[in-house]
Amino acid sequence: MRGLHVYVLLIVAALALAGAGRLNAYWMHVAIIAMYYGILAASWSLLAGYVGLFSLSHTAFASIGGYTSALLVKWLGIPVLLGMGAGVVMCCALGGAIGWVCLRMSGPYLAIFTLGFSEIVRIVISSEDDVTAGMAGLHTAPLFQSATRLPYFYAAFALLAVSLLLMGLLVRSRGGLFLRAIREDEQAAGASGVAVARFRILAFAIASGFAGLAGGFYAHYIGIMTPSVGDLDEMAKLVVMTVIGGMERLPTAVGGAFVVEFLLEWLRDYGQWRLPIFGIVLLLTMRFARNGLVTPFWLRLVRLGEARVSPRSAARELPQKDPGA
Amino acid sequence: MRITGRWRVTAKLVVLIGGIVIASSQFVGAPARAADPIKVGWVGPLSPPGGYAEGALMKQAAQLAADEINAKGGVLGRQIQVVFADTRGKPEEGTAAAERLISQEKVVAITGEFHSSVFLAEMDVAHKAGIPIIAVDVWALSITAKGYPEVFRVAPNQALIATKYGDWIAAAGFKNVAVLFEKTDGGQSARDVLLPVLDKHGVKYEVVGADPNSTEFTAQIERFKTRQPPFDFFMTAYSEAGAYPMISQSHTLGFAPSARTGIANSGGPAVDPTFWKNVGEAGKYLVTEIVGLPKNAWNDKTKAFVAAYKKKYNQSPSPQAIENYDAMLVLADAIGRAKSTDGKALVAALEKTDIVLGRGRYTFSTSRQPDWAYHQFMNAPVALVQYSKVGQEAEDAPIVWPRDIANAKYTYLKPGQ
Amino acid sequence: MSWDYLFVQAANGAVIGVIYALIAVGVTLIFSILKIVNFAHGDLYMLGGYCAYYVIEYLGFPPLAAMVVAMGALFLGAIVLERLMLTPLYSDATERKDEYGLIVTFGLAYFLRNSAVIAFGPFPLKPPSFIPGVQRLGNLIVTNDRLVAAGVGIALIVALLYFMQRTIWGQALDAVSQSRDSAAIVGINARRFNSFAFGLGAALAAAAGALVAPIFSLAPDMGVLPNIHAYVIVILGGMGSVSGSIIAGILLGESENLFTAFFPDPTRAFAYTNAFGVLVLMVFLIFRPQGLFGRRHLRME
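Predict the joint structure of the above. Result:
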């Protein structure tokens, strides 16, 4: 049955939504944070995995989205959802601008440039503390007035699903093919007629927009926003998650985010060693399983529905030669 | 058969989903039994980007307290077990840690934390769950000002500390102060409280913010040196590792401490065990705060704690360590009096705390005037000391402020005198 | 503003700039030979510093000797790392080698930074001074340690330049940096030289760490800021140009100091100093990616 994996995923999703209420507050929080990272991982994989733009400013955009939303809600009193929307718009615009500025940069140069941008964002937010409250933390309006975290769970789930849907549509379209072509060989793609510049800017804008969306949700969920949301430490964690999962596909990127986030929490008993351990896992993954560790599982899932034909059964199908004729 | 493959796949799926269902039941949590140890949660930074040095000191003290309590038979006949959570200086980690400690580990209370912004996230979780949380070394006023009944603070806060600095600076006769604050929650709140106090006393100042990762202050110090009229005091609110090079550079460049300009460092590093090894000569004449009792006021509990800590960890305890140790004892005392580990009962018992420990007589105010007084240990000792000898232990340093407990004849000892 | 003040700030800037340059030279070397940006460089610098400290504390070596030991240790360690992790860079089966190098060194940095806190403890450590005391020139006060660091730094960089231009091995290294295949044709074992280059870059970082330790103290996250400085310098000076790194290093030291010294808003001047350096970096990346002296970016494929 084609597309069996979609049904499987839908069933799992339904189970998750139905069973969410039974989770205790801690694991629900972990799940929500995992979904936050899932959106970030998927959108970063769009940039780095599909188009090949290794941007280190992704979490900085999440922080910009979060602060934009929090500050607008605080100063103008607009509803939180509108604030989050404004955050997305801001990040799309800025992301597109960065994409434009980086047009002629590739590989390590792009990485260093975006690293620099991320640092400047952090320094500015942290220094202008009469506006942003800096490291003391900016108190944000909550998205829901609720005694439990459950509405946030559903909201995060919805945001993740919508993000994946939209990004998935992009990736499956002709545009997606063009994006991949840019990663494989930019010059060849350009020579074949791909509007490289336009797609690079678009990719940056879209990916940053999703980062801003995640950041906006995060700001109004955690309740206190600090510049550490966008720092290099968070970016490093995101790279670790996405690469371990598989940076070339949206689902594996999300899978990586979930796996690493849950494991990080589960391994809290091992104290500080859990972080260096993931560094090693990343190194091993790159060395020996560059596609990512989640990828083989995902591929097997996708192929579930395909008819499996074994040689013996195939032989039985063949018309038997009449021994006598 | 043609469907062999399908059967296998189905079987694998069943196992997988079954496994997930069984595993997830773990997340729903199991009830605790009475003979189990009493679990107490500890939160604080143990790795970067948090202030991991201070976090480590606090953790050591908390463990020491738990060991001593258990050696005496525990509380309510049960042993105390501290569950440590590394919050790395990030509010999100604070939320996660608090949730885990409460929902998963089923702790009866939480103590610790060094970063105000992280504690604010943690206390929200504790408040929703009705679990008491004792703030150990976080100084932001909003922590107690918010009025959550579950929140208690054993540390002084910025209103108590920075105000003392401001008053002292004026009393010591300084008129022109260079203020350098670290861009963290601690540094910012120090600045926010200090500047109005200086204004009140008519002291002039210039304020400079610094990145917590900085280690190179030469250019900034040289800039300070060009000020006309010259600064007569260098007030720093800086708690990260960079404090050491800052003090060394300030001294080497002839800025402070010098005959013309004094220096103070607020935030902790000046009383950490590695202070003298890192700054040497430059630390003499430096002013800093101690949040424990001055040595001449030490009671038996203080002496016992210092001796035990030194014996176990081969270092003198820092203020954060003392605070965390006492927090654990306060908690144990409350549990003992409440005769229960229920959240509400504990909160009520904590509110009635009246016990003498290594930092004096612990009581928590129930007043809301000013708003930060609620559940604040109002008599938290804060004294300003000035090192008079290289290698001097903080508890031996002469106390210069407040004058009613000062044991130095002077308010400020000028270098060279 | 007086000339004296300008002189003091500029002189300090030059001294610190040389120290920055020493860190950056390793990055540029690794880039020109292996064609990857080493994101773990700041952490190698940190390891070098700690290594020297422990050698002084527990083996009783004098500071300069400890620096040499640290250089040696990191040299060997880096070669081992390179053999373990970077060999896919040489096989044609690996796609997108730029990306591989980025992620691997990134992962290495992540691992080193987070293990350092556990391994070395969180408290800042300080080895004894190379030469205690200060030098004075008018109003300029510079500690001997800084002068030693700058002096040894220059000596090492000059030695490196000499090595690369005048010795056979150095010229072979240069050949590999220009074209692996051509070098292989001429009989140079490019693989061996790649390992050698990585080791050499790490050794330089270790030297910087050891030299700087008495000045700034050692802390597990001490490599974070120098890492960023290194990239600024390498881009400014031009990826692949060692002499460019020296000049760019001094320029960066100068501009940071002068920014702090003269930026009109005193409250923000210091805090934005790093941002200023990074801004310069970004401007160069946009308008002149080859920096002041560099060759255009040579991709691996």
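Chain C is about 75% helix and 5% strand.
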